[in-house]
Amino acid sequence: MNQNKRKPISNKAKSTKSTEYVVSEPMGLLEFLRVSLPNQARNKVKAHLTHREVSVDGVVTTKYDYLLKKGQVVKIDRSGKPQQASASDFLEIIYEDNDFIVINKPAGLLSIATDTEKVATAYHLLTEYVKQKDAENRIFVVHRLDRDTSGVLMVAKNEEIKYALQDHWDELVIFRGYIALVEGQLEEKEGQITSWLKETKTHFVYSSDKNGDGQKAVTNYKVLQESANLSMLEVKLETGRKNQIRVHMQDLGHPIIGDKKYGSHVNPIRRLGLHAHKLEFIHPITKQKVSFLAPIPRKFKAILKQS
Fold first, then answer.
1. Where do the domains of the chain lie, and which CATH numbers do they carry?
2. What pTM was computed for the model?
């Protein structure tokens, strides 16, 4: 349904410092706020969540993908000093020890800060989280996910682990698996894509088939499930280049749904259909194999049944 043509989904109460909305159809919290606050920019809407100004039925709620039910009351309260957000409010922490934190990053959340967004990032939230235990604690980025890609994201909790992973990433990482929802049905149900990726000044990444003309990128894929209009793929990276999967799916002629930048014409789940499903690596200190899994999003499975 076109959001601009959607009928009003909330009833607003009059207030200068707080505003209430009554949910009239189920949807995610961030989506509900964006529809209910059409005159506010995306970052402004997200800031209400970051600053803990949003409650659902009286309970402060900050998860972007919190599923609202019909009849619930969403309140935005600007009357008091914003409370500091906690990682546990926004993020599902899959695993934590003295060396790592592994989260299931939601779609729509940046991994690290940009020029226009400093607070609503996984790095900021996890930094505040570890500092709650000790003000001297820090975290260190070892890899990233695109803003609109969900799934397994790991950060290091000390510099020894950071440098070990950064310096030996290709040797230590055994498996980086993704789930991709793409347009159409693939003729070849399993295969490998190899190209050399280049980036324009406007940050558009594209493939060259000329050996050595760019960064070599290798992607393996396998169809797990398909419907009349969509296919769900398991994707394994042999290299980790910027936008690699997105570009390679476009090269196949089956772009990832919701990926307008790389050729998609449909967006049935209102997000990019890409999820970092599994990360497996050798622990640089213990030398033991460790594996982390973020379940396939329910939206992915649901849309396949509907299409």
1. 3-77 (3.10.290.10), 84-167 (3.30.2350.10), 172-307 (3.30.2350.10)
2. 0.72
